[in-house]
């Protein structure tokens, strides 16, 4: 069996590549970057350089279709935001191989923070009060009570541009449009939890919940402390039943002072919780094929060790708690017998830094600029 895993820049892709290789599959990985992280792994048989999907979605879909035919791919597995372009291309790709994603309309509804919040209304675990902002006047109406709200673009990732209880003057500067809306979500204090789940036809196949104890700023977690609150699993099971979702999905939650969970947003792609299954590679792959009780992770925390040392350590240099947490966790990149990705982290960051410089974007923004989908029209219809 031959799998093509997309988003080779992502640690999640590396995790899946190792899991499939351990299960006896032939593993190819694809990306528009020349030197993505997973390319250097011994688990990978072949690297496929693809065009940038955001720049020309149809050219990207055509390139995928050609390689699926050429390499006799059995399963196409996305890990990052290329999933939206993949869903757009389902009419052209599903006749060629199994594609693990849901349809485009459902993914759009989940990706848009306002539409997702509306979806959860009346659920046992629901989103906080959320208002859609499509005009400057919508922002002005909330400016006076801005300290009670969190403002963020409806299409965004890594908490980029998120304003938590901002000053009224900041809210008055926002200029949302119907094409690029924002949302305001009622602020709830509490403990954040994140999830990773794998569903097939709405059925939960694997599930992990974790607390991102250390982050890159307000964005991506770099330390993943397992937790298994029943409310989170119940929510994901209800979500699967309501939507029939197929693919990987993550949710962000807040547990308030009374222990009640509130879902904040959805990421219809792989999240860092995939790493919590690194000691069960064959079982993880089998969840894609065979239904059964959902696979659950081990209780050992995971981390991106290099990021912990470069970003976390300078802030917590004399913290005993930080170093205790560091010693307790396993690195998600380093693996005995597979040391290539250790050095590849620096090579990949260098390539992204060059893109950031050439495109005049920040490093984090440049890391996904070519695969993001922010609601823009995908010109044309994929060929059936």
Automatic annotation (TrEMBL):
Describe the location of the ATP-grasp fold PylC-type domain by residue ranges. 145-272
Under the GO molecular function aspect, what terms does this record hold?
ATP binding; metal ion binding
Enumerate the Gene3D superfamilies for this protein.
3.40.50.20, ATP-grasp fold, B domain
One protein family per Pfam:
ATP-grasp_3
Its protein name is ATP-grasp domain-containing protein
């Amino acid at each position: 069996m031959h799998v093509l895993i997309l988003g080779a820049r992502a640690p999640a892709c590396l995790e899946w590549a190792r899991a499939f290789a351990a299960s006896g599959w032939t593993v190819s990985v694809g990306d528009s970057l020349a030197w993505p992280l997973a390319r250097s792994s011994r688990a990978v048989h072949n690297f496929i350089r693809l065009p940038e999907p955001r720049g020309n979605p149809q050219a990207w879909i055509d390139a995928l279709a050609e390689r699926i035919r050429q390499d006799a791919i059995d399963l196409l597995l996305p890990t990052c935001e290329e999933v939206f372009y993949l869903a757009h291309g389902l009419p052209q790709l599903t006749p060629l191989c199994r594609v693990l994603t849901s349809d485009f309309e459902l993914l759009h509804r989940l990706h848009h923070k306002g539409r997702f919040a509306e979806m959860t209304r009346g659920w046992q675990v629901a989103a906080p009060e959320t208002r859609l902002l499509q005009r400057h006047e919508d922002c002005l109406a909330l400016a006076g009570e801005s300290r009670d709200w969190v403002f963020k673009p409806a299409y965004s990732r890594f908490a980029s541009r998120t304003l938590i209880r901002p000053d009224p003057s900041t809210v008055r500067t926002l200029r949302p449009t119907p094409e690029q809306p924002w949302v305001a979500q009622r602020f709830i204090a509490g403990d954040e939890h994140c999830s990773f789940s794998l569903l097939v036809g709405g059925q939960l196949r694997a599930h992990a919940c974790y607390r991102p104890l250390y982050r890159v700023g307000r964005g991506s977690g770099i330390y993943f402390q397992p937790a298994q609150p029943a409310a989170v699993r119940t929510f994901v099971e209800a979500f699967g039943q309501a939507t029939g979702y197929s693919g990987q999905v993550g949710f962000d939650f807040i547990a308030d002072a009374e222990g009640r969970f509130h879902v904040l947003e959805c990421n219809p792609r792989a999240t860092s919780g995939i790493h919590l299954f690194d000691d069960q590679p064959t079982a993880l792959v089998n969840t894609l094929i065979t239904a059964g009780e959902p696979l659950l992770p081990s209780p050992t925390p995971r981390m991106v060790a290099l990021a912990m040392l470069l970003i976390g350590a300078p802030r917590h240099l004399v913290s005993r708690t930080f170093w205790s947490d560091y010693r307790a966790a396993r690195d998600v990149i380093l693996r005995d017998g597979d040391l290539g990705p250790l050095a590849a982290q620096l090579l990949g960051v260098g390539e992204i830094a060059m893109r950031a410089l050439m495109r005049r974007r920040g490093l984090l923004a440049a890391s996904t600029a070519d695969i993001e989908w922010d609601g823009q029209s995908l010109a044309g219809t994929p060929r059936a």
